[in-house]
Amino acid sequence: MSFDGYKDKIEEGDTVILYLTITQVYCIKAEPKTLNKKGNLIENVFQTPYGALKCAELIGKYYGSKISLSKGWGYVLQPTPELWTITLPHRTQIIYTPDMSMIILQLELCPGSIVVESGTGSGSLSHGLIRAIKPHGHLYTFDFHKTRAETAQEEFKDHGLANYVTVTHRDVCENGFGDDLDNKANAVFLDLPHPWLAIPHSLKSLKQTGGRLCSFSPCIEQVQKSCLMLLKLGFQEIQTMEVLQTQYAVQQRSLPVVNLDFLKSEKDGTETEKKDREMIKTITAIPPPTQPGHTGYLTFATLPPIWARNLQISLNQDDINDAD
Ligand SMILES: C[S@@+](CC[C@H](N)C(=O)[O-])C[C@H]1O[C@@H](n2cnc3c(N)ncnc32)[C@H](O)[C@@H]1O
C-alpha cells in the first residue's frame, strides 16, 4: 500500500525500494514469510551483494533510513513511479521515465483526468499515469494478454492503487475500448504493435470537447501509418518526437587560456598582443562519448472539439488525395 501517498514508517505488506548503489536498486516486500518454488511458506530473506536481508526486520523502520547488511549498508525508500520503473518485474518492454515525463506533459494530464491506455504490459507507464491523475481521475487500461492484465490488476491492488484504475482484458484493435467509455476520455495512450487500428476506437472514447492522443512506436513505418490515420480522422497538431536523454559528466579539466594583455613598447609606445597562453583548472561538463540509442517515437495529436471536426476531416481528405 506504499504507492498511494507518503507515510513515515514501513508497514507489513509494503513494497519497499532497497537502494544500495545507483546501479543496485531493488524492490522487496516487507513481509516476514514468502512462498518458495515448491509452494511452501518460508522466511522471506532477500540476498544482496552486501549480505542477506530479513524482510521482516524492515517492518516499523522509517522510510529513508539506513539499514545494515553483513558486508555493507543500504537505504530503504518509499516507491515512486520512477523507482518502480527501474525495479519492476519485466513482463514486456516498458516505458521509461524520460518518455513517461514527456507523455504526461504532452497529454496535459492533471488530477481529475480520465485516461485510456493500451497495452498495459508491465504497468510501468500506468503507475506514472495514475500518480498524475489521482485522486479524482481514472485510468482505464487494456491488454489482450490475459495473464498480463490479471497480474497488473493484482499489482495495482497490492500497491493501494485499485481505486484509480480499471484493468480490462481485451483486444482493443478488434473490439475497441467499449461503449461505456464513449466521449469520456481526456487522453488516450497507445503502446501497441498496430496502433493505427486502435486510433478509430480512440476517437470514440475521447471527449466531444476534444482531447490528446499519444502513440509510442519503435519503428518509423508504424509512425507513418498512425500519422496517416490520425490525419484522416481529423486529428490536428500531429507531432512525432524522440526523447534522447544526454548525461553530461562534470569534471575538472586543465584548459589553455589566451592571455589578452598587451605589451607596450617602451621605445615607441606601440602595443602588441601577448601571445602566451596559460593553463587554468576549471570545472567543465563533458558530453558522453556515445549517445543513448533509439528507444521509440512518440507521436502526439490533438482531437479538436466536435463542432470543428467535420470541416477538418474534409480538408484532410483533400490533402491525402493530393498526396496519392
Ligand atoms: C510493450 S507492452 C506495453 C508496455 C507498457 N506501456 C509499460 O510501460 O509497461 C505492449 C502490450 O500491448 C499488448 N497488446 C498488443 N496488442 C494488443 C491489442 N490489440 N489489444 C490489447 N493489448 C495489446 C501486449 O500484450 C503487451 O502487453
From TrEMBL:
A cellular component annotation (GO) from this entry: nucleus
tRNA (adenine(58)-N(1))-methyltransferase catalytic subunit TRM61 C-terminal domain span: 72-302
Keyword hit for tRNA processing: yes
Compartments in which it is found: Nucleus
One Pfam family it belongs to: GCD14
Chief location: nucleus
GO molecular function: tRNA (adenine(58)-N1)-methyltransferase activity
Protein name as catalogued: tRNA (adenine(58)-N(1))-methyltransferase catalytic subunit TRMT61A
Organism field: Aromia moschata
